[in-house]
Amino acid sequence: MQPIRLLGAALVSGAALIAAPAVHAADYPSKPITLVVPFPAGSGTDAVGRIFGSELSAILGQQIVVENKPGANATIAASYVARAKPDGYTLFVTTNTSHSAAPWLMKNVPYDPVKDFTPIARGGNLPFILVVNPKRPWKTVGDLVADAKKNPGRITYASGNSTGIVAGATLANRAKVDILHVPYKGTPQGLTDVVGGQVDFMFTDLASGLPFVQSGQLRALAVSTAERSTIVPDLPSMAEAGVPDFDLNSWNGYFGPAGLPPEVVAKLNAAINQVVAKPDVKKRLAGLGFDAFSSTPEAFAQFVGEQRDLWGKLIRDAGIEQQ
């Protein structure tokens, strides 16, 4: 009879383990949540993440602690979150850098962007703009391209994330010019050197670059998308500026580690959708150059897979070799 009693105990223990996530989720959140950002303080994702963090804190009734873990094309932060306990207390606000581009830019990415994460919701898009030091003579993208053709290898561009890397390489490929890439750990450092004149130009997210444009420290020449942005409608698209087949956008979204309980995912998704439904929040985010919207977890999961394939093509087409 003892083996039967042992089996019964094992079944009870197993049932308790299965029930544990649901019980835990019912009480979620019962302590502060860490929101990991893969870029430095002052970057567009950081600024947007802090607004979302503040709003989510009010909705969920717990403090949201923003933790910056920049570097290595956002893979340092992504690896950290992928290894975290899937209990909803370590979340990730990230972009196409970690999930769409890094697997194609780097030979050894220590995580799977699909299998190692639980998609929660999209947050919106961060449109990119091409900015130059105002002391440079270029008033249009055509001016920049013409100068680059006259001076191969002498004009430099900064990057602080994968979108900046791929945008610069795509410009070189589409316009048939030789320009020199200067990578930075994050967007703020790159912008500082473009403002200072150490680097000639940069593709930057609107949230980071727009204040410099508005203050006259940088000149914006175009947006990186196929069509004009409603946020900066006076700027031409790259196609309008004379560079064909140019359409790059940086998406933003929220993840947890793989295995996040469905009840926690549903609660977080509802809270994020509640944030983007607030007109005052959308207005604040638009002022940063961020187009806020959300999605279901299922739609976001499908989107992540599609974007991984799309960015692979963009990177191959631009002739970027894995490092």
UniProtKB/TrEMBL annotation:
InterPro entries: BUG, Bug_dom1. It comes from the Bacteria. Gene3D superfamilies: Bordetella uptake gene, domain 1, Periplasmic binding protein-like II. The keyword Signal applies. Residues 1-25 form the signal peptide. Keywords: Receptor, Signal. Belongs to the UPF0065 (bug) family. This is Extra-cytoplasmic solute receptor family protein 54. It comes from Achromobacter arsenitoxydans SY8. The lineage of its organism: Bacteria, Pseudomonadati, Pseudomonadota, Betaproteobacteria, Burkholderiales.
